[in-house]
Write a structure and sequence with these properties.
By secondary structure, this protein is of the alpha/beta class. It has helices spanning 4-12, 22-25, 79-88, 90-105, 154-184, 220-232, 241-250, 254-262, and strands spanning 31-33, 39-43, 46-54, 61-65, 68-73, 117-120, 123-129, 137-139, 143-146, 190-194, 201-203, 208-212.
Length: 270
């Protein structure tokens, strides 16, 4: 049984740097540092500063993305248990981080100018500065006409493209949620768009769904996988065999779709 006093101290703690065993506190070589890190540990000899959050879920979750490591845990899990979980998955965390870094090397830069190209639903579209149009619209399935002057600056072009993509993403995501939810016997209640660097989506038990708007760059098969994945969490708030059974009932090829999604390299929006 957990010590009640320890639980209270953990919950009220402002999350200082994690205590690590004296034998592993000193590390040398490369480090893994999340830009919003609030805790620290050492995994396999590497110092790791990570973002730790208390969330509504049934188990500890580990996510490794371009920003680094994020750890999410329910309120009843102690910080000691979080640290033990990290040590057990240390090799996995570092392997995932190496894979993320390798993918980042292949990310292409977008040139925010007339004639530039980017992916939309898995196919390339080209940007056209078109001051004569009333609002940004896709023409002929491959030309995105932007309601901008011919001398528009790169930041103006980027912001106009993002606004259009986010409108398209919300409309499409809502359509796919409404398509799959009745088949799965669940009801979603709110959709929010995110720009997370390491997550495609998330779901809350109250029916709130968050989807990364940058999914709109990918093929519909990938988008549907993420949509079904998050809707399945409304029945199983975990990644247990029962959860994957729910996903498989809708997408028998979910394993292949998941592997394909993991290989995706989105363009750099900086």
């Amino acid at each position: 049984m957990r010590n009640p006093l320890q639980l209270v101290l953990d919950l009220l703690s402002p999350a200082p740097a994690a205590e690590v065993p004296p034998t592993t506190r000193q590390s040398s070589g490369p480090t893994l540092t999340h830009p919003r890190a609030n805790r620290e540990t050492v995994l396999e000899g590497m110092r790791v500063s990570y973002l730790f959050q208390r969330v509504r879920r049934r188990s500890i979750g580990f996510v490794v993305g371009p920003d680094g490591l994020e750890v999410r845990a329910p309120k009843w899990v102690t910080l000691k248990e979080v640290e033990l979980g990290l040590q057990e998955r240390g090799e996995w965390v570092l392997r995932k981080w190496a894979e993320v870094q390798e993918r980042q090397k292949n990310i292409r830069q977008i040139e925010w100018a007339d004639g530039a190209s980017l992916d939309y639903l898995g196919s390339a579209i080209h940007l056209r500065l078109s001051p004569e149009v009333g609002r940004s619209e896709l023409h002929d399935g491959c030309k995105l006409k932007l309601a901008l002057p011919l001398n528009a600056e790169a930041t103006q072009i980027r912001d106009a493209v993002q606004a259009w993509l986010m409108r398209e993403a919300r409309e499409l995501f809502e359509s796919r949620l409404n398509f799959f939810a009745p088949q799965m016997g669940v009801q979603w209640r709110k959709l929010s768009l995110s720009n997370a660097g390491s997550r495609w989506g998330s779901a809350r038990i109250d029916g709130a769904i968050r989807l990364n708007w940058r999914l709109i760059h990918l093929k519909l098969e990938a988008i549907d996988y993420v949509v079904v994945h998050e809707l399945a969490h409304l029945r199983e708030m975990n990644h247990s065999p029962a959860f994957w059974k729910v996903v498989a009932e809708i997408l028998p090829d979910h394993v292949e779709r998941r592997k394909a999604l993991q290989k995706e390299n989105l363009a750099n929006w900086a």
